[in-house]
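Hi team,

Filling in the usual template for the complex we talked about on Friday. All components are listed, including any nucleic acid strands or ligand strings, so the model treats them as one assembly.

SUBMITTER: L.P.
PURPOSE: interface mapping
COMPONENTS: four
RESIDUES: 274
SEQUENCES:
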Amino acid sequence: MLSKKTKYGLKALAYLAARDRNVPTQIAEIAKHENISLKFLESILLNLRKTGFLGSKKGKGGGYYLIKEPHEILMTDVMRVLEGPIAMVPCVSLNFYEKCADCPDEITCSVNKLMLKVRDANLEVYRNNTLADILAQ
Amino acid sequence: MLSKKTKYGLKALAYLAARDRNVPTQIAEIAKHENISLKFLESILLNLRKTGFLGSKKGKGGGYYLIKEPHEILMTDVMRVLEGPIAMVPCVSLNFYEKCADCPDEITCSVNKLMLKVRDANLEVYRNNTLADILAQ
DNA sequence: CAATAATCTACTAAATCAGTAGGCTAAAAG
DNA sequence: CTTTTAGCCTACTGATTTAGTAGATTATTG
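RESULT (copied from the run log):
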């Protein structure tokens, strides 16, 4: 199940992608338009700024804006930051690999075998989609 | 993240697939061999029996056994029973569809758009893999 | 009848999720 | 230089899910 955090984060990015990058957009505006709790969105956008997706400006006329062009923002990177590892199991994760404590051998493990295929299928999607690809129209 | 329940369920199914369908295998044997908590596995196997994957026999010489051949058991069905919906969001789910409370329009929703692609990619994997496909060798 | 092994009910500790509350800091306007 | 604006930061909280445990019950076999 996709977390609300990821859902809201994606919606906020999509909202910002449709606006002028040179004019900051306030959290409150995004929250209202996308029906998101203001305070919750606040922490999500802060996170997206710290991980290099957004820039921000304080004070009057401040807000958030995309740092890169929508077509340069890969879903792989967005998902890893918002949702965490793309793999469903650490033993098939590229960026967060960890051996399973219970599993004696990955080669013969059927869970590993299946989850590897699932990971590849998901990576394929996330690698071939940028923020620009998921905008309306 | 894949739940332990699903992980253990898959391992148990794989274990049973490698054994004679006519000779029941005890929970304790599977639990020991796969390093799974006995009581937890108990409830998982019960669930798999109630959903038509396993048969059981009580008393001495009892245990669990597969009802169908491994190549007849689709991962789509196993995953839906163990892990729940394959879609990451109810608004793109085939079997558990639900409208998002916050989202006014699915057509223009970028989350919907992305998650539809993800769902299709995952379905592709689960539909093309049976229990036989994820066994060792 | 005794032993075996699945079935059923109920409880629980720990973690994660989805927020809230409230004060702090930087920038712009007057 | 003070007020307003809007993001920044820390800490807490209720609800839900996860991964179990404990213990009694029921059916089967020898």
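MY TAKE: Chain A touches chain B through 35 residues (CB under 8 Å). DSSP finds five helices and two strands in chain A.

Thanks, L.
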